[in-house]
Amino acid sequence: MVDKIASLGVTFELTDEQKMLVKLARDFTREEIIPVAAEYDEHAIFPEAIFHKARELGIVNMNIPAEYGGVGATVFEECLVAEELGYGCTGISTSISTNNLGALPIILAGSDAQKRYWLGERLVEQGQFVSYGVTEAAAGSNVVGIETRAEKRGAKYIINGSKTFITNASHAHFFTVFAKTDPAAGHRGMSCFIVERTMPGVKVGRKFDKLGQRASDTAEIVFENVEVPAENLVGVEGRGFYLAMSVFDHSRPGVAAAAVGLQRRALEECVKYAQERIAFGVPIYQHQAIGHKIADMAIHYEASRLLVWQAAWQVDAGIVNPKVPAYAKAFAADMATRAAVDAVQVFGGYGYMREYPVEKLLRDVKIFQIYEGTSEIQRNIIVRELFRGS
Fold this sequence. Notes:
Number of strands: 10
CATH architecture of the largest domain: Up-down Bundle
CATH topology of the largest domain: Butyryl-CoA Dehydrogenase, subunit A, domain 3
Helix content: 40-55%
Structural class: alpha+beta
Low-confidence stretches: none
Strand content: 15-25%
């Protein structure tokens, strides 16, 4: 039977190495994340020590190629880890995985020298943090609308502007920043730069006090006449918009996978509770109103994971089709939100109390419908791709 399945060319069976990776991430989540998740959430503690433990295990900087000292993991393998970490705490998992996002512009478009220094020396060897700087106060979903400027002066660029809602900004040692080098050129006038935190004129502003994912640091960055060497330009000037879109195609499956992890946590908590809680003389899962909620949760979890796997496989295969990552991101985010809402309902009044885990899931989940492209933007992408050329 196994040989017959293999001959079809399609299989959902993980390799032995992938199974080991899942076990590694699952054990790490159980031992290092879940025991402290509530405390880190309540006090908005940045999980720096957990980050470095994860780095020692090779589940940080996973997408950095092996020739630069990284693991060289596939997007699919990143997703396997993201689901496990997201199961434990999506705030902590966001902090752990942000280096993958911040490094992507350099991985996709950087020179060999940039990769050796920023990826190999700074991230892998020194264990530093990098943040990804696109979002601005007036330009969230509309990436083309960014107002940060980078003016070429001799062998330098002078950057002025600000970024907001930047993950890990308070702790980042450097940033990959998108700015307009030719404001009149629209989306063809955007470029990407590596900006050191220590450069004069770089200021990290206030840290936001958030509803959920409170263990993940989110803050503003301000650039005032920051002089950046021309050698810090990532890729080709004016191609930054296309680079940002490619970054999203690579990063969205992993974000969706974290939402899948949260779905699984909601499902398992509900299955456990619905067996223990007795109402009208029987465990509450035997009441159809509750049992069907949990059944739907299971269906949506499995469907979300399959979409994530398909999106990751596509990126790893070199297929450029933004529609599929958008499918995965929108569906996983929406179904995770539904799962968290339904989990609180299954728990009833107890679900509203902090001593039970589903209250935190409900606060943490909402951001999945917002960051890395809102659910509405994902649908815009899908519509664009469905009707392209019509």
